[in-house]
From TrEMBL:
Keywords annotated in UniProt: 4Fe-4S, FAD, Flavoprotein, Iron, Iron-sulfur, Metal-binding, Molybdenum, Nitrate assimilation, Oxidoreductase
GO annotation, biological process: cellular respiration; nitrate assimilation
One Gene Ontology term, aspect cellular component: membrane
4Fe-4S Mo/W bis-MGD-type domain ranges (all copies): 6-62
Family that this chain belongs to: Belongs to the prokaryotic molybdopterin-containing oxidoreductase family. NasA/NapA/NarB subfamily.
Protein name from the UniProt record: Molybdopterin-dependent oxidoreductase
Species lineage: Bacteria, Pseudomonadati, Bacteroidota, Cytophagia, Cytophagales
Stretch of the intact protein here: 1 to 702 of 1169
Entry cofactors: [4Fe-4S] cluster; FAD; Mo-bis(molybdopterin guanine dinucleotide)
TM spans (from-to): none
GO molecular function: 4 iron, 4 sulfur cluster binding; metal ion binding; molybdopterin cofactor binding; oxidoreductase activity
Amino acid sequence: MRSTHDTSYKTTCSYCGVGCGIVIRKDRKNNLVLEGNPDHPVNKGMLCSKGMNLHYAMQDMSDRLLFPEMRWSRNHPLQRVSWSDAMKRAAAVFSAMIKTYGPDSVGFYVSGQCLTEEYYVANKLVKGFLGTNNIDTNSRLCMSSAVAGYAQMLGEDAVPVAYEDIELSDCFLIAGANPAWCHPILFRRIEAHKQKNPEVKLIVVDPRRTQTCALADLHLQINPGTDIYLYNAIVRVLIENGEVDYNFVRGHTEQFEQYRDSVFQHTVEEAAEKCDVSIHDIQLAASYIAAAKGFLTLWAMGLNQSAIGVKKNHALISLNLVTGHIGKPGSGPFSLTGQPNAMGGREVGGLATMLAAHRSLANAQHREEVAKFWGVDSISSRPGYTATQMIEALERGELKALWIICTNPLVSWPDARRAEAALANAKFVVVQDISRRSDTLQFADLILPAAGHFEKEGTMTNSERRITHLDKIVDPPGEALPDAEILCRFAKAMGFKGFDYTSVEEIYAEHCRLTKGTNIDISGLSYARLRAEGSMQWPVPEATHSGTTRLFADHAFYTPSRKAKFYPIDAENLSAVPTPELPLILTTGRIRDQWHTMTKTGKVNRLRQHIDKPFLEIHPDDAAARNIGEDDVVVIRNEQGDVRVRARISAEIKRGVVFLPMHWGRMLMKDAARANNLTTMLVDPVSKEPDFKFSRVEVELY
Ligand code: SF4
């Protein structure tokens, strides 16, 4: 919201899903001065290193794309063209592809960094007007297992809790996440709460002893892929000790017996051995949870990016259900979104398997409702290609034209060399981005310069369902345009009606109307309210409603029976099993001061001070067995490819496991350090989220 002072603006951080509020002022020379918004309920003025330095990344214009560029074939150089010519060419190619090969020959790949209004227009354009559901997002790579877990167990992709539950909880279980580095402001709130209340317990589950573990009362350093054995064993102890909330389980859940039978398939001793943790520590974790009045489970990619990611979500959410810790203060399951607007994208149906306002693509009535609303005859019932299915469809030549917005799949897709070959096979690639540093540009037949953060208006939804309005603060450079405007221009060039918006506020209002009557109803939350009253958590169904802090306070879930549903859970991991030739397990992840593929954070000197080079973290015993010393150059290899970086020897990682940061791509390091050279196309069978956290590898001296 714009403040009363005409050079002061309100926005949010464009990095992680914590969604910290930011105030920007312009000094006399028109430079941007940035600080945390003291009135924003999420961060109360605090910012982490990435957020504090966001304005440096956004004011550095050295790499910005300034005008559309086009080439007639891959043998021709890219040449500057007008917006009008760019749109005509895009429309001509997409029309020809659809006419010749059908609507499923084209697709869009978008991003959890897009604003909700941009996501909405893209989804309407593709599903409503191009006639295909081939629009997926990079949220597929991070949150889709949590989406499926919530939807199956609670009846809706709905995070039940709020950040204010942190201060009301007395036991936290953080699994497969390192919020001290990746969600720092959220973690600072946990830290401050624990400092004030030393009896508060923190359990961390992670094969690495990360910065988050420094605060933990108990670190369960499990073998990768064994999470379900651990959570099931904790539940078994709770059941055997009579610590289950049977009033809640009998009154508000179903299928508990089947779930309990699956939990009893393994003894606590077997689980301890599988996980490589002690029986005592499993019992201790159970005792902390049993004693808690408020119990929060928090998780991120360590659970989601797995061949059994949805089952891991089932297992963790079950911990909240058996103890009745959901829908009450300080309690509930809380997935941490990695991107600033992963949640907003889900709201508008920005996944290949969803429809707007969390409607289901598989539901004929839902398709009809949305088609009628958009004024089109019908919406295809065929699910679109998910991210990895896009790679396969490109390889087969079935997906011919791909439009990529605000994401850099050449670095972030799994099995990167295979993904690269697949992109090279496309007939036509559009890259809509802000930066020349995107590796994916090398495959672009058409480059469209987009406006960046601060350069456009819109909304984002953070991890706790909180919608915040973002002011436009500065004009975009050159001929760059907001993503929503680019998409509307393309739609009009295609001859489609329904894209004559005069402002992004109109797009937002249309999206709000489409949510009316759904579980994510925000028909009562206008731009005027967001500007005047600040951010709010959905649902906000009336103009007098002030938002919903916590879901399921009445224990009525969104399933048809209104009961939460347990699932029997098979604990076995489905990842490729290590062999004598490839005996180590590679896990990939983030470092504190970098973001995704570094097209923004990589430009900021201050952020490079923390860690400026890629590295392989390896246990001293594994290093010694291979004659590897600190800072030696090593090669990590497997069936997919190889990576060459320096070794960082650390007893903080589990023996048999190695860690590579995910940030460095081809443009920065040729492709020597691209972690996804080593990951595979294996995905969770339900969520289609890749198994980024478990690849078998061998490491040797270079
Ligand atoms: Fe930005 Fe996340 Fe840091 Fe907040 S915690 S400032 S949202 S990166």
